[in-house]
From TrEMBL:
InterPro entries: ITPase-like_fam (IPR029001), RdgB/HAM1 (IPR002637). Belongs to the HAM1 NTPase family. It comes from Limosilactobacillus balticus. This is Non-canonical purine NTP pyrophosphatase. The keyword Hydrolase applies. The keyword Hydrolase applies. Pfam families: Ham1p_like.
Length: 200
């Protein structure tokens, strides 16, 4: 069955990526701004991806109770800096690199150190003010020495999945999607709903 999901986030890049991922799995999604005026989401906690994803999904579900609301929380974990980023990635990176180039910053942050990272996503589905499913996804790999690839933007230009030599942005779309932390979380959620099988 093709589901119509509403994506609860203020991040337009995230909306586009989740729309693409859902289409890849023969599903459909649009940002909440297609249904509601812009909202001020409650502040995120520092405790867990799951708590933040649930809070964002429930916040929009309260206003659109009949809809299937999905929200994710994602974070970067670096082996070289175990205490940094993670659930606070958006806040910490915004403070450290206010208007700058995040990729350039990360490339040099790990110079001379372990370049290994894990990107994690937790995605929550809320319907009628209740969280009904939680999906998880992660990608392990290394941070490239320079940005590479034109098939995607953002971290995809510096993330090299473990066992690969190309960045995500150098890969074709099906291969790239198979590695994306957010796509893996969406797939995990759809699997739980019985909506994503290998025949797609
Ligand atoms: O290039 C990227 N590709 C990605 O795939 C990705 N995933 C996360 N991030 C970064 O991590 C922060 C936390 O993300 P986050 O889940 O807290 O979302 P957010 O605060 O931007 O939006 P919202 O969903 O909370 O409204 C974001 O701001 C980005 O700096 C990414 N950057």
């Amino acid at each position: 069955m093709k589901n119509n999901f509403i994506i609860a986030t203020h991040n337009i890049h995230k909306i586009k990526e989740i729309e693409t991922i859902l289409n890849f799995y023969h599903q459909h999604g649009v940002g909440y701004r297609k249904k509601l005026p812009q909202q001020a989401f409650p502040p995120e906690s520092t405790e867990s991806y799951e708590k933040n994803a649930k809070a964002k999904a429930l916040f929009i579900s309260q206003q659109l109770p009949a809809a299937k609301i999905i929200a994710d929380d994602s974070g970067l974990e670096l082996l070289a800096f175990p205490g940094r980023y993670g659930v606070q990635t958006a806040r910490e990176l915004t403070q450290e690199v206010p208007d700058g180039d995040l990729n350039d910053y990360l490339i040099h942050l790990v110079d001379g150190k372990s370049r290994q990272f894990i990107m994690k996503t937790t995605i929550a589905l809320a319907i009628n003010n209740q969280v009904v499913k939680i999906g998880h996804g992660q990608l392990k790999g290394t941070i490239a020495h320079t940005e590479r690839g034109v098939n995607a933007t953002g971290f995809d230009r510096i993330f090299i999945p473990a066992g690969e030599s190309q960045t995500l942005a150098e890969m074709d779309q099906p291969t790239r999607i198979s590695y994306l932390h957010r796509a893996r979380a969406v797939k995990n959620l759809l699997d739980q709903l019985g909506e994503a099988n290998e025949s797609y």
